[in-house]
Description:
By secondary structure, this protein is an all-alpha fold. It contains 12 helices and no strands. It has one domain (about 1-65, about 115-285).
Amino acid sequence: MFDQIFDAIEEWMRGLLTGIINSNLDSMFTQVNEKTGEIAAQVGQTPQGWNSSIFSMIQNLSNSVIVPIAGIIITFVLCYELISMITERNNMHDMDTWMFFKYFVKMWIAVYLVSNTFTITMAVFDVGQHVVNSAAGVITGSTAIDISSALTDLSSTLEAMEVGELVVVALETLIVSFCMKIMSVLITVIMYGRMIEIYCYTSVAPIPFATMTNREWGQIGNNYLRGLFALAFQAFLMMVCVAIYAVLVAGIQFTDNLSSSLFGVMAYTVVLCFSLFKTGSLSKAIFNAH
């Protein structure tokens, strides 16, 4: 009698643990597959295409708040440029009309750059979008992790396990599933964080653009422009990370050792998140932006 009760309890526990394991495996990679599939679409967006409302707000803030400050900076820079130009010519003893023509050209360029700041910055991101779209056409392979092939042979593997082993596997799948959800959140944070950085970066664009025509102050504008290209081409580096991840995922082989397979897949996802996080500093290092 007691043997039948214990057998029934064991059978119930087996069914419960097997159901937990299968449920965890079914939902484990859903969010990660969705987020990795969205990366190409997200990073290929320009700031105005990603969220037009935020872009309009940033543009209005820049035009109403930052452009007047840039106008003051232009006035200072042009006055400094004129004084430096005159003093370099032997205190006005060695003057010619060409230097004034050159000064007026510089003044026109400075005003033009500040007046068309957003057009220039968006042109940089249009170039980055073109590169990302071209890369997306070259990259082949799916980033989705297919667990269905492993589930077909899993039933026989689970039936051969003891209750204690099933408990361990259930805990492992629960941990890996939780970690995968964290990875999907991190991928979202990285993608949204980059776009927010772009909006913050472009909001103050008129100020560094106002310094670009001066030899001494121009380093501010030149470094800003390098940082702008670094942000635009970070999207391409993110696409490279996704392409590498797709190759790694395609080579996944689920074996009878389910624990090893699951933690191996999680390791690939951790590497993807770490690589996406490092693309920002790597892109700035390539363009010498600081």
